[in-house]
Write a structure and sequence with these properties.
Length: 191
């Protein structure tokens, strides 16, 4: 199973990614989490990425693509993976197509979480406080939303044209959103 979870920053992708990935027994791969881990460890990748992340801008495609290529080449991703936060640009879509095709597989589905913009900004501001992400100022949060709208939102159409997009209402209780995602992916509830 090869899946992409899309939606603006703060749509709850990380939370849902874990449930969905656990269900299918595949890793949830978050490029944002990998970048943050590298930033905390002070690796060369982290130092490079931080310059962009601090401004709410995207890390350059070459850096991001190589990182994803390495990650999905790891053994735990052999049965599949769920990508959270990647691809975010057309160049990344094309690169990912190549990676998946060269492994002889196909992309199964793209789940898009739809949320209310104001609610998202509120969620992110709260998360920044709870998780102590001091650099998540409201300006940076708004910049990230704008970058998503400009660069990433248009990619949904590319996948829509392939007939693999599932648009899900991302508002409300976490478990209700999970149920909607599973229903869209034809997952039969166990109980
Ligand atoms: P996220 O946690 O997914 O919102 O990612 C946090 C930050 O990491 C983003 O604002 C970007 O600076 C960077 N980042 C994460 N994923 C990507 C990507 N696919 N392409 C470029 N930059 C990314």
């Amino acid at each position: 199973m090869r899946l992409i979870l899309m939606g603006p920053p703060g749509a709850g992708k990380g939370t849902q990614a874990k449930f969905v990935a656990d269900h299918f027994g595949i890793p949830a791969i978050s490029t944002g989490d990998i970048f943050r881990a590298n930033v905390s460890e002070g690796t060369p990748l982290g130092i490079e990425a931080k310059r962009f992340m601090d401004k709410g801008e995207y890390v350059p495609d070459e850096v991001t693509n190589q990182m994803v290529r390495n990650r999905i080449g790891e053994p735990d991703a052999a049965p599949g993976f769920l990508l959270d936060g990647y691809p975010r640009t057309l160049a990344q879509v094309e690169e990912l197509d190549g990676m998946i095709a060269s492994s002889g597989h196909r992309l199964d589905a793209v789940v898009v979480l739809r949320v209310d913009q104001d609610e998202v900004v509120q969620r992110l501001t709260q998360r920044a406080q709870v998780e102590g992400r001091a650099d998540d100022t409201e300006d940076v949060i708004r910049r990230r939303q704008a970058v998503y709208a400009e660069e990433t939102e248009p990619l949904i159409q590319v996948y829509r044209d392939r007939g693999i997009v599932h648009e899900i209402d991302g508002m409300g209780e976490v478990e209700d959103v999970t149920k909607r995602i599973f229903a869209a992916l034809d997952v039969v509830p166990q109980s």
